[in-house]
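quick q for whoever's on today - can somebody do inverse folding on this one?? i tried earlier but teh output was garbage lol. C-alpha cells:
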C-alpha cells in the first residue's frame, strides 16, 4: 500500500469514527481513550495473527494435528497472546443479542452487553502484560451496543492487515493528532506535533542507552526514537531503555498504549510521584544518555523549598517570590534536562521563546549554562506549530560530548520563516524541510558525508518520482536537480495546469468530473515533485557541495565571547540577523489574470449545474 493510500485510509477511518461520535452524546474527551483502545486492540490482533502464523509453521504434530499455540510461544517472540474473547474478530462477529450467550467475564459474572464484553477483552489483554496492567480503557458500557458494534466494524477493515503493525501505529498517531486539537489536559497538550519531535530526535541521533522524558505526555518522543533507532538497523527495545514521568494519569495511559502499539516497552510513572518539580521518580540524575521533552511552559506557583530539596539544580534555584514560590518554572525544567545527562549525554527539548533571553535569576542560570560549553544548537520556531496555542517556541539542544573544536561554540538557527502551511491555524516542517535543517547541524558538526548522502537522496527521489509520472518533459530536471531543475519543473507544472484546464473545458459535461479527476491527480504528482526540487534548490543554494557558511537570516555559529557580548541571550534572531526579501518569481499581473479566468470558468460551470438541477426539478414536476 503506497503513502497516498495509507493517507486515505487514515482519513476514512477518522471520518467514520468521528461521524459516530457526532451522532452520540459523548464528548471528544469521553470518546478519545476508548477509540484509541480499540485501535490498540486491533493492532494487537493483527500482530497476534502474524506471529501465530510464524509459530504454526514449525509446530509439532500429534495424532495428525498441530499442537495448539500457547501464551509462552508469543512471549518468546515479544508479542501479546490474545485469549479468544480478546481477539478482534471474535468481538466483531458477536450476535446483536449478546446477553443470550451467557458469557462470563474474568470475575465469573454474566455479561449482558457488548460494552461489558469489550471491557472484559481489555482485562484479558492486561493479564498478558505487566506494562499494560490498569492502563487500557474499560468504559465501553458508556457506549450503546449499536455505536460500539459499528466502531468495531470500522476498525475491522481488512486493509489494516495488509499494511501491518507499523502503519496501524501511524494511524494511532493520526487519531492522537486529531483528538489533540479538541482535548487538552490540565497541564497543557498531551501531544507534541510530530515535526517538532522528529527534529529533536534527528538532531540528537539516539543509538543506545537510557532515554528519559520527564514530561512524556502520550509518548511521542519514545515512538520517534524507536523509529529512528530501528531505521539504523538496531532494535530499539534492545538498545534503548525508555523512562517517562507524567503527572496526569490519563496521559500516561495514552503513552503506554502508544508505546505498545509501536512494539516498545518502557517504565512510565504517573501521578503525584511523577511530578518532576518535586520528584526524580526514576533516580536518573547524571545517568541519562538522552533527555527529550516538551514540558508545560511558564508554570507558576511551584513551591520553592520543595523544588530545591528535590535537587537536580546544578546552576542554582530560580528566584522565589514573596509567597516562597517560583513564579516561572521554565528554568527549573532547563536545569533538570541538563542535570539528568551523563558525561556524554545529549538533550533536546521544546521551550517557550521567552526563555532564551529572560532576565533576573534566569539570566544568571543561563550564563552558567553557556559557560559549561555544552549548549549545542538553538532553533527558533514560528507560530502555529501547536494545536492548542499559536505562540512561537524554541528548540534547545545540549551535548556534553561535543567535539573539542565546538565546545566554545553554539549553532543558532532562525527557522521562523521556514515551514509548510497545513491550514489556517497550523504549520509544520515537511519531511524534506526536516532533513534540510538537520543538514545544517551536520555541517556545523563537520559531518559532510551525511550532507552528501542527502544530496544523493534528493537526486534518487526526484528521479523515481519523475519516472512514476511518465512525464518525459520532466526528465530534464534530473540533469540538474539543485539549480536549473526548479525552473524546469515549475514551467512544466504550469503547462500541465493549462493543458488540464483546456481538456476539461473541451470535454462533454458528463465526462467533466472524470477528466478533471484524472488531470488533478497528474497535477498533484507534479506539484509534489516541484516541492521536493524546491527544497533541494533551497539547501544547495546555501551550502553547495557541503561547506558550512553563516547565512544571513538563517544560521550563525557564535562563540561564548560573542554570546557574553549579547548579554547571554540564546535567541537565534539576535545572532543571525534579517535575511533580505526574496523575489518569489511570480508575475503578479499574470497570476491575477489566471485567477480571474479560473473564477469565470468556475462561475460558468456553476451556472451550468444550476440549469441542470432546475431542468431535473421541472421534469420531476417540482
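ok took a stab at it. sequence:
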Amino acid at each position: 500500500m503506497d503513502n497516498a493510500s495509507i493517507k486515505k485510509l487514515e482519513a476514512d477511518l477518522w471520518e467514520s469514527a468521528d461521524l459516530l461520535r457526532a451522532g452520540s452524546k459523548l464528548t471528544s474527551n469521553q470518546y478519545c481513550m476508548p477509540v484509541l483502545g480499540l485501535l490498540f486492540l486491533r493492532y494487537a490482533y493483527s500482530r497476534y495473527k502474524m506471529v501465530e502464523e510464524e509459530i504454526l509453521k514449525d509446530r509439532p504434530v500429534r495424532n495428525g494435528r498441530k499442537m495448539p499455540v500457547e501464551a509462552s510461544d508469543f512471549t518468546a517472540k515479544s508479542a501479546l497472546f490474545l485469549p479468544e474473547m480478546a481477539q478482534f474478530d471474535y468481538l466483531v462477529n458477536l450476535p446483536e443479542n449478546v446477553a443470550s450467550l451467557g458469557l462470563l467475564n474474568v470475575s465469573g459474572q454474566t455479561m449482558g452487553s457488548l460494552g461489558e464484553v469489550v471491557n472484559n477483552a481489555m482485562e484479558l489483554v492486561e493479564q498478558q502484560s505487566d506494562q499494560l496492567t490498569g492502563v487500557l480503557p474499560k468504559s465501553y458500557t458508556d457506549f450503546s451496543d449499536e455505536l460500539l458494534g459499528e466502531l468495531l466494524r470500522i476498525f475491522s477493515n481488512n486493509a489494516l492487515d495488509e499494511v501491518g503493525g507499523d502503519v496501524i501505529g501511524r494511524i494511532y498517531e493520526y487519531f492522537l493528532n486529531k483528538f489533540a486539537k479538541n482535548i487538552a489536559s490540565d497541564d497543557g497538550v498531551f501531544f507534541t506535533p510530530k515535526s517538532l519531535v522528529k527534529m529533536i530526535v534527528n538532531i540528537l541521533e539516539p543509538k543506545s542507552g537510557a532515554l528519559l522524558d520527564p514530561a512524556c505526555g502520550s509518548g511521542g518522543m519514545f515512538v520517534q526514537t524507536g523509529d529512528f533507532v530501528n531505521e539504523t538497523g538496531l532494535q530499539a527495545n534492545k538498545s534503548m531503555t525508555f523512562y517517562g514521568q507524567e503527572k496526569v494519569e490519563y496521559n500516561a495511559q495514552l503513552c503506554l498504549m502508544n508505546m505498545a502499539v509501536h512494539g516498545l516497552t518502557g517504565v512510565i510513572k504517573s501521578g503525584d510521584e511523577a511530578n518532576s518539580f518535586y520528584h526524580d521518580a526514576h533516580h536518573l540524575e547524571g545517568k541519562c544518555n538522552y533527555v527529550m521533552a516538551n514540558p508545560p511552559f511558564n508554570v507558576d506557583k511551584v513551591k520553592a523549598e520543595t523544588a530545591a530539596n528535590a535537587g537536580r539544580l546544578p546552576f542554582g534555584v530560580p528566584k522565589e517570590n514573596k509567597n516562597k514560590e517560583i513564579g516561572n518554572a521554565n528554568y527549573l525544567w532547563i536545569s533538570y534536562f541538563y542535570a539528568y545527562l551523563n558525561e556524554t549525554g545529549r538533550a533536546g527539548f521544546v521551550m517557550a521563546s521567552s526563555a532564551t533571553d529572560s532576565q533576573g535569576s534566569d539570566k544568571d542560570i543561563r550564563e552558567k549554562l553557556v559557560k559549561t560549553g555544552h549548549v549545542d544548537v538553538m532553533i527558533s520556531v514560528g507560530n502555529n506549530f501547536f494545536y492548542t496555542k499559536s505562540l512561537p517556541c524554541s528548540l534547545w539542544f545540549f551535548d556534553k560530548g561535543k567535539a573539542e573544536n565546538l565546545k566554545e561554540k553554539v549553532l543558532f538557527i532562525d527557522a521562523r520563516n521556514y515551514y509548510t502551511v497545513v491550514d489556517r491555524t497550523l504549520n509544520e516542517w515537511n519531511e524534506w524541510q526536516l532533513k534540510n535543517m538537520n543538514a545544517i547541524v551536520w555541517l556545523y558538526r563537520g559531518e559532510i558525508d551525511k550532507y552528501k548522502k542527502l544530496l544523493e537522496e534528493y537526486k534518487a527521489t526526484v528521479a523515481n518520482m519523475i519516472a512514476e509520472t511518465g512525464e518525459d518533459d520532466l526528465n530534464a530536471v534530473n540533469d540538474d536537480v539543485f539549480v536549473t531543475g526548479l525552473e524546469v519543473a515549475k514551467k512544466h507544472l504550469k503547462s500541465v495546469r493549462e493543458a488540464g484546464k483546456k481538456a476539461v473545458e473541451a470535454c462533454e459535461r458528463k465526462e467533466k468530473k472524470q477528466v478533471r479527476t484524472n488531470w488533478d491527480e497528474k497535477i498533484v504528482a507534479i506539484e509534489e515533485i516541484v516541492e521536493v526540487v524546491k527544497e533541494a534548490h533551497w539547501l544547495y543554494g546555501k551550502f553547495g557541495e557541503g561547506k558550512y557558511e553563516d547565512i544571513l537570516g538563517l544560521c550563525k555559529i557564535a562563540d561564548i565571547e560573542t554570546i557574553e557580548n549579547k548579554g547571554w541571550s540564546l535567541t537565534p534572531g539576535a545572532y543571525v540577523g534579517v535575511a533580505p526579501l526574496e523575489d518569489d518569481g511570480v508575475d503578479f499581473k499574470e497570476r491575477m489574470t489566471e485567477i480571474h479566468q479560473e473564477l469565470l470558468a468556475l462561475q460558468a460551470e456553476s451556472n451550468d449545474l444550476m440549469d441542470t438541477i432546475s431542468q431535473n426539478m421541472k421534469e420531476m414536476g417540482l
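fwiw The longest helix spans residues 509-543. also Residues 3-172 form a domain with the Ferritin fold (CATH 1.20.1260.30). so keep that in mind when u check it
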